[in-house]
Amino acid sequence: MKVEQQRSPRYGPLHDGRINGFCLVSLDSDFTSLAARLRREGAKVYGFGEKKTPGGFQRACDRFISLENLLPQKN
């Protein structure tokens, strides 16, 4: 007997047009699967972290912004 996984209906802010993007801040890869899932669902994902943040998380985001680029340069 084959058991099929039932998918939950699509509802909520992501699917009714109220939210179209997410900002995830991480210094490790904990949110990589979340970023990938949100992108599969059609949301834009912007990741923020240090330059040393794992590449998997960086690639899972539509755009990754290094926090070092947001800080003023030291003279």
Strand order of the largest sheet: 1-2-3
Q: What kind of assembly state do the chains in view correspond to?
A: single chain
Please report which band the strand proportion falls in: under 5%, 5-15%, 15-25%, 25-35%, 35-45% or over 45%.
15-25%
Tally of strands: 3
User: Which value, in Å, is the CA radius of gyration?
Assistant: 16 Å
Average pLDDT = 84
* Distance separating the two termini: 69 Å
Unreliable runs, pLDDT <50, ≥5 residues? none
Proportion in helices: 10-25%
Shape: elongated
Q: What structural class do you assign from the helix and strand content?
A: alpha/beta
Question: What is the count of helical runs?
Answer: 2
- What series of H and E elements makes up the topology? EHEHE
Give an account of the 3D structure:
The chain has helices at 32-40, 55-60; strands at residues 21-25, 44-49, 63-66. By secondary structure, the chain is an alpha/beta fold. The chain has a three-stranded parallel β-sheet with strand order 1-2-3. Strand 2 (44-49), helix 2 (55-60) and strand 3 (63-66) form a beta-alpha-beta unit. The longest helix is centred in the middle third of the chain and has 9 residues, at 32-40. It is elongated, with a radius of gyration of 16 Å. The mean pLDDT is 84.
